[in-house]
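User: Run a structure prediction on this.
Assistant: Running it now.
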Amino acid sequence: MDINQINECMVLSLVGKITLSEIAIRLSAAGVERYIVDLVTFHRVTYGNDGEYYRTPFSFSDIPEIPKIFDLSALKNTITNIRQYKIDYPAYLRGIMASGSCNYEVYLHTKKIVYFGRDGSYYIEDFSWLK
């Protein structure tokens, strides 16, 4: 895995400088198979195609409290907004947190994102729409 590319991608995404499509393209090119974003501890664990992993903390401002209830309607609304480029990545993170998502896992090769709630609820989003 290209750790420098992974770090650059994280920095750019957290300031809203790249889209979800660009994130997926850059991370795939960096040798990433999948990654997990923990919205409670603010860490991302990135797993490479070769089996190695890289764990790194991140931060951003105006963090909403994650409710105990997993609001699927609110989550889908946030996903729709990011799909339509109405919001940037930081707003997307705040939106999924406000909907009750405490972490999510992205599978780049199969183009799936699994969102998890505090109560074990989950939602699987196919992101083959990303170009």
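The chain has a mean pLDDT of 92.
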